[in-house]
Amino acid sequence: FxxxxxxxxxxxIIYPRAGTLSALFVLLALLVHSKESATRAGAVSAxxxxxxxxxxxxxSKDDGVMVGAMLLLYDIAxxxxxxxxxxxxxxxxIAVVTVGYLLIRAAVCSPIGFSYFGSTPVGxxxxxxxxxxxxAMGLLALPFDLAGTxxxxxxxxxxxxxDPWFLGAVVLVGCALGVAGFLWRRxxxxxxxxxxxxxxxxx
Length: 203
Prior knowledge:
Helix content is 66%, strand content 0%.
């Protein structure tokens, strides 16, 4: 946070520190997931540990729900060689934990999903989220105008699909994904980093 303050609210306010805790468990899950075991017992232990860490990431902050997608992306990016059946076995504990978490959340939390946005039309939500993502990407490159938290009017809501803010956001996001595609064979780690970022930002 001293080097790059883009997510400074996670350390400047107590409540958002849940994001830091969730990120810790996501990275630990990725670390355990990336280590191959020579024995079946070791592989089973790794799957259980990964599932527990994934649940802790989700329980810390709901952004952690994307941990399964991140781990699957890792396997695709860095050449999982166990075949489709092996990949299903490898990912099934994470899938079970994710479904369980979502069921628990649906039962005890409200609102969820798009209902979180109330009566706001889905199209407006999609446009606004796209612009927010582009602003976050911009802050990664140029960390200026940072605040401890976001006000409702901090980012203008695009009025239509032709709104210049929305079109600019689409171009920026598209360029980032294009770079990830272009570098997939040349610099796989860079492509993985870009796609990992988008997976983390989806929630």
